[in-house]
Amino acid sequence: MSHSVLREPLLHFTLIGALLFGISTFFTDDDTRRDEIVVTQSRIDHLAAVFERRWQRPPTEQELSGLVDNFVREEVLYREAINLGLDRDDTVIRRRLRMKMEFLARDLIDAIEPGEQVLRDYFSANAERYRQPAQINLRQIYFNRGAHDNPEAAIETARALLSEGVSASELGDSSLLQRHLEGQTTDQLDRLFGEGFASQLETLPRGEWAGPVESAYGLHLVLLESVRSEQPADFEDVASIVLRDWQSEEQKKILEAQYDSYRSAYELRVEGKLERASEEVALQ
Fold this sequence. Notes:
Layout lengths: L2 H4 L2 H19 L13 H15 L5 H23 L7 H20 L5 H10 L9 E9 L7 H13 L16 E5 L1 H8 L3 H4 L8 E6 L4 E10 L6 H29 L10 H10 L1
Antiparallel strand pairs: 1-2, 1-4, 3-4
């Protein structure tokens, strides 16, 4: 079977449909009448397994009997609620049932393991998404505007002291900001120092103290140690991310194929004027 066939959502939907049918068969019994509740051995085993996962021990005979009684009570009330139509026109129930249908499809697609070549092809087709951003190593000295009558003059004094060999750790004002940052992206720097901080670094020389650079906190002298430009990613470094993205995209395709398949069994009739409804919403 070719890799292109393996990537077809309709094939996945067929597999999922078979699994859904198997699950439905497991939880239902064709020989059970509507007015009859049958607690099968598989149901009892399931109740016992759920209890054991929660309490880290198997249930006693009395506890298991109580679990069965609770299941029967739940089943009786569930069936009566359905008979009374309590599930109809209930927005919460409708949304929860929709979510359960979609979650089931998502869980099943997660179980599909694509071959490495499928993921490599997906990676190649979306290479721009996985480009590694530029990374910056820098040192900074912080100056609090409120702590100096003339912060620009304080920065010039610090620059002169640096040229005389004074350690950067002895200069500037105290803060929680790190003085030495490595492997930072522009987004990370903007999150740390405020929007626009990283863009000011583009014109600074490399390997020497420069500035002042303004941040959300004040002013900084900055030493750009190194800047690694943006570059393509290696598949091995982002394989787990590629798998996640592939699964997410396949899930969307499967959910759409699932909906289209179910939708084809229904005839749609819209009664009412949609433009009138839009006007009423706009007036509210």
